[in-house]
């Protein structure tokens, strides 16, 4: 290929003929580890603390495109994903709605100007990696294999510009239940000082830069006796609720007609489009439409899911009126985490004022318990629903 076929696009970048080679599962090479690790007892697993024997790796070069992918013995570590594999009733590993994770990873990579990739090919490669390391999936209820696909820019030159080189890797970690003794209500500090995301930013993408700035506020919240941060966004004189830590948020509010509103903040560019979030909205709609029955919820109890903004002031009012029944945070790791209290601290010179949520035996309210159990039943193969689970073969 002659140099005349390439043109400079600034900052040392070259743009050439397209399409460049994409991810190609047919070129996969597998190098198995000569010494396999001993499997730890599932009860000893700490989230993200144990890695399996192998990882998936591919690199991108602006001249030659994506390299042949490799499954090779694991070595330790940007945009990334979080997903899980489970053991189905037939003993085969299965993934929960993986196409959504692949689509979100592609959107996040595009937002950071990282090289594009074939999402179908990456999913096929991830399945092959899981098959290689499937012995690491704990065959116990509530346990799974956490999957972390990651793309990092590897351009060697200095300068503030997009990376035209990248490394894609996928690592696996067996994990147990987020709450080992069952879901416990968590406490949240809603402090006005810190913002997780803002309009026009990267809040709707799963990028590393969204998470590190939350570490210090989390420490501050912990010193005040709270488990996590409830992120707010000021809109005029209102404080809108956005996310809890790294999780999406739902509330359950009584309606005048006896039904229940299930409300979560809208995808306005500051909210991550979580797979668990989307699944809960879909399940609530299906229950109300009579297409399935959520466990423990009467078929006569209608749930009306809404994606709309609500504020700390709204929550305070609904609590005073006895209408706010539940609040819970959701995500891949915890599935559903009930919220017991929210401390609101608008004036940082004054102590937070607690909003106390209704308490339920076992921690979870009726709606949060129902959607959590249904999602876990689907993930582990006890319930088949809408093709959400995909076998790894």
UniProtKB/TrEMBL annotation:
A Gene Ontology molecular function term of the record: branched-chain-amino-acid transaminase activity
InterPro entries in UniProt:
Aminotrans_IV, Aminotrans_IV_CS, Aminotransferase-like, B_amino_transII, BCAT-like_C, BCAT-like_N, BCAT_family
Show the SUPFAM superfamilies listed in the entry. Answer: D-aminoacid aminotransferase-like PLP-dependent enzymes
An example GO CC term for this entry is: mitochondrion
Q: Which PANTHER family match?
A: BRANCHED-CHAIN-AMINO-ACID AMINOTRANSFERASE (PTHR11825:SF44), SUBGROUP IIII AMINOTRANSFERASE (PTHR11825)
Q: What is this protein called?
A: Branched-chain-amino-acid aminotransferase
Reaction(s) catalysed by this chain, per the record, are: L-isoleucine + 2-oxoglutarate = (S)-3-methyl-2-oxopentanoate + L-glutamate; L-leucine + 2-oxoglutarate = 4-methyl-2-oxopentanoate + L-glutamate; L-valine + 2-oxoglutarate = 3-methyl-2-oxobutanoate + L-glutamate
Enzyme Commission number:
2.6.1.42
List the keywords (alphabetical). Answer: Amino-acid biosynthesis, Aminotransferase, Branched-chain amino acid biosynthesis, Pyridoxal phosphate, Transferase
* Alphabetical list of CDD domains matching this protein: BCAT_beta_family
Q: What class of enzyme is it?
A: transferase
Sequence similarity: Belongs to the class-IV pyridoxal-phosphate-dependent aminotransferase family.
Residues annotated as coiled-coil are: none
Q: Where do the segments described as Disordered lie?
A: 1-20
Look up the domain of life of the source: Eukaryota
Q: Name one GO biological process term.
A: L-valine biosynthetic process
Q: Which residues carry this modification: N6-(pyridoxal phosphate)lysine?
A: 206
Q: Identify which cofactors the protein needs according to its UniProt entry.
A: pyridoxal 5'-phosphate
């Amino acid at each position: 290929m002659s140099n005349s076929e390439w043109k400079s696009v600034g900052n040392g970048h070259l743009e050439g003929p397209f399409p460049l080679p994409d991810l190609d599962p047919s070129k996969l090479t597998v190098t198995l580890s000569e010494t396999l690790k001993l499997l730890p007892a599932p009860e000893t697993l700490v989230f993200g603390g144990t890695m399996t024997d192998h990882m998936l790796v591919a690199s991108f070069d602006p001249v030659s495109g994506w390299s042949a992918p490799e499954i090779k013995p694991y070595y330790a570590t940007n945009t990334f994903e979080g997903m899980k594999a489970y053991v189905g009733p037939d003993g085969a590993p299965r993934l929960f709605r993986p196409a959504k994770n692949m689509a979100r990873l592609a959107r996040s990579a595009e937002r950071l100007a990282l090289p594009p990739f074939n999402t179908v090919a990456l999913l096929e490669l991830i399945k092959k990696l899981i098959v290689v390391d499937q012995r690491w999936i704990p065959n116990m209820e509530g346990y799974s294999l956490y999957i972390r696909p990651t793309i990092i820019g590897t351009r060697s030159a200095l300068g503030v510009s997009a990376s035209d080189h990248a490394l894609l890797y996928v690592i696996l970690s067996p994990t147990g239940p987020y709450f080992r003794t069952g879901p416990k209500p968590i406490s949240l500090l809603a402090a006005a000082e810190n913002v997780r995301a803002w309009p026009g930013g990267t809040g709707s993408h799963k990028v590393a830069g969204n998470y590190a700035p939350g570490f210090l506020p989390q420490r501050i919240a912990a010193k005040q006796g709270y488990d996590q941060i409830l992120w707010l966004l000021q809109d005029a004189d209102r404080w809108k609720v956005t996310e809890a830590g790294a999780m999406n948020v739902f509330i359950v509010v009584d309606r005048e007609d006896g039904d229940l509103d299930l409300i979560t903040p809208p995808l306005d560019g500051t909210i991550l489009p979580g797979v668990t979030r989307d699944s809960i909205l879909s399940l609530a709609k299906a229950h109300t439409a009579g297409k399935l029955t959520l466990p423990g919820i009467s078929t006569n109890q209608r749930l009306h899911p809404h994606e709309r903004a609500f504020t700390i002031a709204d929550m305070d009012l609904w609590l005073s009126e006895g209408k706010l029944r539940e609040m819970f945070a959701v995500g891949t790791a915890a599935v559903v985490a009930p919220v017991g209290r929210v401390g609101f601290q608008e004036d940082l010179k004054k102590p937070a004022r607690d909003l106390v949520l209704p308490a339920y035996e076992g921690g979870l309210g009726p709606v949060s318990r129902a959607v959590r159990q249904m999602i876990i039943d689907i993930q582990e193969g006890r319930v088949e629903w809408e093709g959400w689970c995909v076998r790894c073969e």
